[in-house]
């Protein structure tokens, strides 16, 4: 894998295919690098769960080669940016956990009839996007994973390619490592995971009461515990085997996915900070009770703030790059809608991280 951290993140997400509540991962960043990471990661998954595809049509979700083709499997696509609007079955499967649709189809007699089309199975989905926003990212089950050190990853990819063409890369070592990871994946069993620390650690406080982040953090913690099932004590309660989360598992979840839980704070120039403050004030004035969940369009907000189109567009773009705004809809032609990501101006995210870390260490 070009990036060990990203590889471990994807491995944990793939493990969720063994559970009833699956997780999905979308890499965010350069499409060339992301696609190479996904192709490389596909090689460490056992053949029986690996569903790597370069593209996929909507109908193939219904007409799978076998009944259990999607059950407890991992679907890997290099990019979701090429899916198009017709791939509704895949979107429904990920966002809703299943597809149960009533459709019309032709009969042999040339008439139409209603038919029920369904797709079931604990399918974990891994892909990437070069865009800042995709509908799938709305789901609590989808982790948005920013690329770690893209320049270093690209350098590693190029170096490995040169070594491979020059015959300097030991393919045997690579294959041995792949087989070991495949064996590990097969060996892990779906066991009930219990977290005994939830009453001692106020996860909501450190994650700003964000239900999506809280859900994702707890699920990732359980997956890390599942990965370490041979190192923890297993108990049998009323015929059900279970293992308990350890404090270090929560710490690993916190640090491994740090960019997901805590967006990096950067020093904003005065003009940008001023624009962000004015946007927040307008959202509060328009919807005082639910302003934190309120979306706004660039066009409408610019008109309210009476800012020149070019300046406001630059400010929005920069605030988005800094992680202060999140795209929630729209497109390049008609314009995007955004949502403010952090309303707690008095809290530094680095300090939040350290406070959460210290809370776990005290367990």
Description of the molecule:
It is a single chain. A hairpin with a 3-residue loop joins strand 12 and strand 13. The protein has a five-stranded parallel sheet, covered by helices on one side. Strands 8-10-9 form a three-stranded mixed sheet, with helices on one face. It has helices at 4-15, 31-42, 88-96, 150-165, 171-187, 203-206, 211-227, 247-256, 258-261, 270-286, 298-305, 309-321, 349-361, and strands at residues 24-28, 50-52, 74-76, 99-106, 112-119, 124-129, 142-146, 192-194, 234-237, 240-244, 296-297, 325-331, 335-340. It contains 13 helices and 13 strands. The radius of gyration is 23 Å and the shape is globular. Helix content is 42%, strand content 18%. It is α/β, with parallel strands linked by helices. It starts with a helix and ends with a helix.
Structural class from helices and strands?
A: alpha/beta
Number of strands: 13
Uncertain parts: none
Overall pLDDT metric: 85
């Amino acid at each position: 894998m070009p990036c060990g951290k990203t590889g471990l993140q994807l491995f944990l997400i793939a493990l969720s295919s063994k559970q009833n509540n699956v997780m999905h991962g979308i890499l965010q960043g350069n499409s060339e690098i992301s696609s190479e990471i996904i192709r490389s990661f596909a090689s460490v998954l056992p053949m029986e769960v690996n569903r790597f595809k370069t593209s996929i049509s909507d109908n193939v979700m219904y007409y799978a080669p076998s009944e259990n083709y999607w059950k407890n499997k991992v679907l890997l696509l290099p990019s979701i940016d090429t899916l198009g609007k017709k791939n509704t079955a895949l979107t429904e499967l990920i966002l809703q956990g299943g597809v149960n649709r009533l459709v019309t189809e032709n009969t042999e007699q040339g008439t139409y009839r209603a038919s029920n089309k369904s797709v079931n199975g604990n399918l974990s989905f891994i892909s990437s996007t070069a865009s800042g926003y995709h509908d799938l990212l709305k789901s609590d089950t989808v982790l948005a994973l920013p690329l770690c050190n893209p320049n270093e990853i690209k350098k590693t990819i190029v170096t490995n390619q040169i070594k491979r063409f020059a015959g300097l890369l030991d393919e045997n070592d690579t294959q041995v490592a792949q087989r070991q990871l495949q064996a590990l994946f097969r060996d892990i069993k779906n066991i009930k995971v219990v977290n005994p620390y939830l009453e001692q650690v106020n996860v909501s406080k450190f994650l700003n009461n964000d239900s999506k982040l809280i859900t994702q953090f707890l699920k990732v913690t359980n997956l890390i515990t599942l990965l370490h099932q041979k190192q923890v004590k297993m108990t049998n309660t009323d015929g059900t085997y279970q293992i308990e989360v350890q404090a270090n598992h929560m710490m690993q979840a916190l640090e491994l996915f740090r960019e997901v839980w805590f967006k990096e704070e950067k020093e904003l120039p005065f003009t940008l900070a001023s624009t962000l403050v004015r946007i927040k004030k307008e959202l509060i004035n328009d919807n005082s009770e639910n302003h934190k969940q309120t979306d706004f369009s660039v066009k409408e907000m610019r008109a309210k703030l009476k800012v020149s189109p070019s300046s406001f567009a630059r400010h929005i773009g920069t605030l988005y790059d800094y992680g202060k705004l999140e795209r929630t809809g729209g497109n390049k032609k008609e314009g995007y809608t955004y949502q403010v990501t952090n309303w707690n101006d008095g809290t530094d995210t680095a300090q939040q991280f350290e406070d959460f870390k210290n809370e776990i260490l005290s367990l």
